[in-house]
Amino acid sequence: MKRIGSVVLPALLVAAFAVFVWSEGVRELVLRSMFPDRVSYIYERVTLARLLSQHVALVGVSSGLAAVVGVTLGIFVTRPIGRDFHPIVQDISSVAQTFPPVAVLALAVPAIGFGFAPSIVALFVYSILPVINNTVSGLDSVDPAVIESSRGMGMKRRQILWLTELPLAARVIVAGIRTSLVINVGTATVGAVVGAGGLGTVIVSGLVRDNSAYVFTGAATAAFFAFGLDFLIGRIQNRLYDARSD
Amino acid sequence: MIHRHPGADLEKTTLLGAVLAGVTLLRPLFAFKENRVALGEPVMLPEAGGAWVTGAVAGLVLAAALLSFAPQVNRVRWAKISIGMLLFVTLVITLGRSGSQTVAGMEFARITPSTGFWVGVLASFVLVQGSLHSAPVSNLVRSVVGLAPFLVVLILLAGGMLDSLAPVQEYYTREARFVSELGAHLWLSGAAVLAASVTGVPLGILAYRRRMAERPVFAVVNGIQTIPSLALFGLMIAPLAYLSREFPVLRSLGIRGIGNAPALIALTLYALLPVVRNAYTSLAVIRGSVIEAGKGVGMSRAQMLRFVEVPIAVPIILSGVRVSTVQAIGNTAVAALIGAGGLGTFVFQGLGQGAPDLVVMGVIPIVLLSVFVDRSLAVVIRALTPRGLKGAPS
Fold first, then answer.
1. Whether B318 and B373 share a structural domain
2. Which member of A35, B170, B246, B258 has the greatest number of CB atoms within 10 A?
């Protein structure tokens, strides 16, 4: 019974999603039943699969960079060498996190221009904030006594970081990466208006041409993608939790 | 923790600030444009400010660099804070003055701040905040120092000193429209947060009281948050268009597939999670700790509510409202894409026309609004938090 909820159902949903994205015949059938009397159902300029892969690339590259750079920076400011920067990094990231992500995306245009690469930079800049924040607070929350006892066991600084601090902070860090991903999936959708491509392209085109079938196509695909990704990371987080409580 | 003599070694934050301030001298301060769509010509600080200003900025850079080796005592901290402030004021005034001289007599000419200016602002932030953080001052002083740069800019704006700046010019050409879109933005985000608070608090309470409801409530409100905002707005259009077609009553109320109605519904749905979560948490906090103590000192049910439960719950719930509000201000910007108006209108107009200055003109008030609302609500929440529950001052 449990397997139906955790394996079979997600697998079926993913299969249905894949058919919707890759088979234009099926998609047209679905959309025709939902929105009768439309002139066109299939966005003809780019395939949905291509838009989805652009979206994945936008989110993957920006969040991947944000995760690597953010965790590194977070580690840096909690080491003796970077301690001086601890308060300023926290100040900047807490102020900047109140900026709407869309504002940062829009500002990329005057700063660096239109298109895919500037959007990646904007997504990266914004989504690094929760990663830094969580890495710092995760590492800060490790009990000094635990670090002390690791040192007592004869561990080197590097070993303490990798074997004690990072595993203990992992859950908080992954939560930060999850936040960064969710923000990026959402912001990347708006990226269509700054020429980044991605699933927002169909939505915006549908809004401009008053075609709700297009809007639905993009919106449903983006929503499913966001859900799926979040579900996946939720799983990883739970696994980390289980590993800790062993 | 190893305790060293304060300032025994180099203060790296200040050095970073000095290096960033140095960049201001090497990168263009602003770009001069003959008209709205012209490509900018870079203008460096020496050219814009002349020998005196350049010398002054160089002096500030040097002073900051030297002070990064000085011991971290209060006098040094205030010196660094002053250097940061002076740098900011010098840059803004130079920008305004040189800008008006450059565009004088040319009807469509304008200037746009460039990397040199922005890096200088960052340098000033690093110098001021880096020292303010460790300074033993009250929250009031901190707020005053934090607000000072905004006041400087406001005064200069009001005095017309920054009129040559391109975003300011974009503003002047659509002043009336700006006011109405600002109103629409405030109305949309405000109404959404209000609706989310009115429904979210009972939902949070329900989730806490009924174990059966807990999982579905959180699954739904969490799920909504993961949906991209533009997608959620998009998903609202079809059902609302259908309802408006089928029920003339709704249509006469102005409910259509695009515009305010779908925007308001989507924004409300988004704003739910923080409110629901914090309402839930507040009950858990009350249950967990103080209820027994209240009973112990012989409080009646009404007294418990008035003196224990409400004072604990209100700040926690308001913290949720604060997160919701900041989010709603950002999401409302996206709502302009489905015809709901608001400040996002300028942003997307600017993007559509390839007019970056218009984008900036739309984005800046959105950012300022979020930061302002966030800070003010933080102050309100701090004031409402019972003294015994206050953590370290933030």
1. yes
2. B170
Instruction: Report the alpha-carbon distance of residue A3 to residue A130 in Å, rounded.
Output: 34
Return all residues near A148 (Cβ < 8 A) that are at least 6 apart. none
CA distance B354 to B67: 44
Of B88, B250, B263, B129, residue with least CA distance to B191: B263
| Model confidence at B5: pLDDT above 80 | no
The range of the structural domain enclosing residue B34 comes to 12-165
Which pLDDT tens digit goes with each residue over B111-169?
Answer: 989 999 999 999 999 999 888 888 888 878 888 888 888 899 999 999 889 989 999 98
Q: Tell me: the pLDDT tens digits for B189-246?
A: 999 999 999 999 999 999 998 888 999 999 999 999 999 999 999 888 888 888 888 8
Virtual torsion, Cα A67, A71, A77, A80, nearest 10 deg: -160
Structural domains in chain A? 1-34 (no CATH), 47-245 (1.10.3720.10)
DSSP H helical segments within chain B, as ranges?
12-26, 45-67, 74-103, 115-132, 139-158, 166-173, 175-209, 211-226, 229-246, 248-252, 260-288, 291-296, 301-303, 310-335, 344-353, 356-384
| A193 with B351: Cβ contact below 8 A | yes
**The last residue of a domain, from among B118, B139, B165:** B165
CB contact under 8 A, A103 and B238: no
The residue written with tokens 């002053």 in the block is: B82
Domain edge (last residue) among B144, B165, B186: B165
User: What's the token pair of residue B330?
Assistant: 């950002």
**B151 and B198: one domain?**
no
Q: Is residue B41 situated within a structural domain?
A: yes
Say how far residue B216 (Cα) sits from the centre of its chain.
33
Helix residue spans in chain A (DSSP H): 2-3, 9-22, 24-34, 48-78, 86-96, 101-112, 116-140, 144-152, 157-159, 166-190, 200-208, 212-245
Token digits of residue B304? 């418990």
Domains held by chain B: number: 2
Question: Nearest CA to CA, how far is B370 from chain A (Å)?
Answer: 6
A227–B337 CB contact, under 8 Å: no
Q: How far is B296 from chain A (nearest CA, A)?
A: 34
Three-class DSSP category at B223: helix
**A100 to B333: CB separation less than 8 angstroms, yes or no:** yes
Cβ-Cβ contacts under 8 Å, A99 against chain B: 330, 367, 370-371
Residues B161 and B88 in one domain: yes
Question: Distance of CA A105 to CAs A57, A89, A108, B80, B184, Å?
Answer: 16, 21, 5, 33, 22
Q: Do A222 and B230 touch (CB under 8 A)?
A: yes
> Are B181 and B122 part of one and the same domain?
no
Chain A residues with CB inside 8 Å of B352's CB?
193
pTM of the model: 0.88
A102 to chain B: which residues are within 8 Å by CB?
Answer: 229, 330, 333-334, 344, 347
Size of interface A-B (CB pairs under 8 A): 146
Same domain, B179 and B161: no
Instruction: Answer whether A109 sits within 8 Å of B226, measured CB to CB.
Output: no
Residues of chain B contacting A94 with CB distance shorter than 8 Å: none
- Judge whether residue B2 has pLDDT over 50: no
Question: Does the beta-carbon distance from A84 to B133 stay under 8 Å?
Answer: no
